[in-house]
Design brief:
Elements (H helix, E strand, L loop, with lengths): L2 H10 L3 E5 L5 E4 L1 H7 L3 H4 L28 E6 L5 E10 L5 E7 L1 H22 L3 H13 L4 E8 L8 E6 L7 H11 L4 H8 L3 E3 L2 H7 L7 H4 L6 E9 L2 E10 L7 H66 L5 H29 L2 H6 L1 H16 L2 E6 L10 H21 L3 E9 L2 E8 L13 H12 L4 E6 L5 E8 H9 L1
Parallel strand pairs: 11-12
Antiparallel strand pairs: 1-2, 1-5, 3-4, 4-5, 6-7, 6-10, 8-9, 9-10, 12-13, 13-15, 14-15
Helix pairs in contact: 4-5, 4-10, 5-10, 10-11, 10-15, 13-14, 14-15
Length: about 500
């Protein structure tokens, strides 16, 4: 190729092309190389290049020596304004000991890869954890691992006039009193920009925000915390789910790293994941509240059907006894039957009261674990109804720590057995608790009228409650007639959830 054509090709290339001398300094650059590096070509001649030479043998060039990744290597180059570029390059040795280098700016590509990785990890955190603070702390940490974000806050808001809640934070170090300090700033009249994002439902972008905050006396209570990260620009991204703004994500950018369209899209994706986590936690709390309300109504119904009726009968018998004693017919043979009936009624009321207190928070569950509590409940039902309940379980299922998961599983067993007593006309029930693969499985199978029984005849409220108790721990629930007759209830909860709850 004629040298004139080659020179023209080099000059119009969109990629950076340069020649390095034997010392690794720039000897020549095309216009694209100078533009990528952010300086005039004349200012770069003689300056050290960031490109490490290809492997060479002492005193001679090895033309067939290549760098990893097919000869492509990476280097970093600071440009005016504080921004740092990620350059991808290839080197080719020259006969005079220098190097010819081709390079391009891969900063945006690498950051997009980082953002996609962070988004995937955040999605995994939302799907895999049920502690909201742990989930959103993980989301915040993923965000600060990207190249241009140094600190993140994830804040929940119900009303701009009310105090906020910190649900996730990274990059600030210890900041337990952040909310109190922010409240002090608001009392001094500080303009809190992320409230604008919450109210307007649109992101707020402000460059050089740190300098403005540090120079503003109304922000003085937060100066020490806000000065820790090395940041400059700021974005407040609202978190919206089901057309409702539930909070904001505040992202703090390195100096020279003004947030562009790609970074805003990344923040939007992360805010979507965080909003889903907040909404899921809220729905779980509502489900738990509804289940507790249903449980209170059932206990009230049981109190009325058993203890209240027995106490009413005791009151009537006590009145009859007083009438006997006040009248002329006070012979012992007339009083004894009434006294004996009073004793039986009081014993029955005491038994039912103890059972209801046990169901409020089973002592065996707290002291001895799930299996012992289920066995105790099975025995109390057998004594009361005559129904034979066979509990098949290992004494140790690996459940320790918090009682919340165990109590939900215990309530599932109680509700399923209650349905058997009420609907099934069964003589025996098998309650199985076992570990299957990665799940803790509870299975209740009766021998009653299951195959011919319409689904609607079972307690639908009870079935809904059992399903909600299972699904709040990420489990799977099924109930229905068995192929050989009877009815089967099966709840499977991931062991990982059980053990996370126990440890966290």
């Amino acid at each position: 190729m004629p040298s004139e054509a080659l020179h023209a090709l080099v000059s119009v290339s969109a990629d950076g092309l340069a020649v390095l001398d034997a010392a690794g300094c720039f000897a020549a650059l095309n216009d694209s190389a100078a533009a990528l590096l952010g300086s005039a070509a004349a200012d770069l001649i003689g300056e050290p290049a960031p490109f490490a030479p290809d492997p060479v043998e002492h005193g001679s060039v090895k033309p067939d020596a290549v760098a990893p990744d097919g000869g492509r290597q990476t280097a970093r180059w600071p440009v005016p304004g504080g921004r740092v570029l990620d350059l991808e390059y290839r080197l080719s040795p020259l006969s005079d000991g220098g190097q010819a280098v081709w390079f391009s700016d891969r900063t945006d590509v690498r950051r997009q890869q980082e953002r996609l990785t962070a988004i995937a990890r955040a999605a995994s955190s939302v799907a895999g954890a049920f502690s909201l603070r742990a989930t959103l702390d993980a989301v915040a940490r993923e965000m600060v691992m990207t190249a241009n974000i140094v600190a993140v806050q994830i804040l929940a808001l119900d009303d701009p006039a009310a105090d906020l809640r910190i649900l996730g934070m990274a990059g600030f170090g210890p900041a337990a009193d952040f909310v109190d300090r922010l409240s002090a700033c608001r009392r001094l009249g500080a303009h809190v920009r992320f409230f604008d994002a919450f109210v307007g439902g649109e992101p707020v972008v402000q460059v050089h925000r740190k300098a403005a905050i540090m120079a503003d006396p109304t922000w003085e209570p937060l100066h020490e915390i806000m000065n820790r990260p090395d940041w400059d620009g700021f974005v407040a991204m609202p978190m919206v789910v089901r057309a409702r703004t539930v909070g904001v994500i505040n992202a703090y950018y390195r100096a020279g790293e003004d947030p562009g369209a790609g970074s805003l899209a990344f923040l939007q994706a992360m805010s979507d994941h965080a909003a889903v986590a907040i909404d899921t936690a809220s729905l779980l709390a509502q489900t738990r509240t509804r289940a507790q309300s249903d449980e209170r109504r059932r206990l009230a119904r049981d109190l009325h059907d058993s203890v209240v009726q027995q106490l009413f009968s005791m009151r009537m018998q006590a009145k009859a006894l007083r009438g006997r004693l006040d009248g002329r017919d006070a012979a012992i043979e007339h009083i004894r039957p009434i006294a004996e009936e009073l004793a039986e009624l009081s014993a029955g009321a005491l038994t039912d009261l103890r059972l209801l207190v046990f169901e409020l928070r089973p002592l065996d569950l707290a002291e001895h674990g799930l299996v012992a509590a289920v066995r105790a409940h099975a025995e109390s039902v057998r004594v009361r109804t005559g129904l034979v309940i066979d509990v098949v379980a290992a004494d140790e299922l690996g459940m320790t720590g918090s009682l919340d998961v165990q109590e939900d599983l215990y309530r599932i067993v109680c509700e399923a057995v209650h349905n058997v007593v009420k609907h099934a006309r069964a003589s025996t029930v098998e309650v199985g608790l076992r570990v299957e693969a990665d799940d803790l499985v509870v299975r209740i199978q009766d021998d009653g009228a299951g195959g011919d029984e319409p689904l609607g005849s079972r307690d639908q409220l009870g079935l809904v409650s059992m399903r909600e108790r299972t699904e709040r721990w990420g489990g799977r629930f099924a109930a229905g007639p068995g192929p050989g007759g009877g009815w089967t209830v099966r709840a499977a909860v991931p062991l990982r959830r059980v053990r996370e709850e126990a440890t966290g």
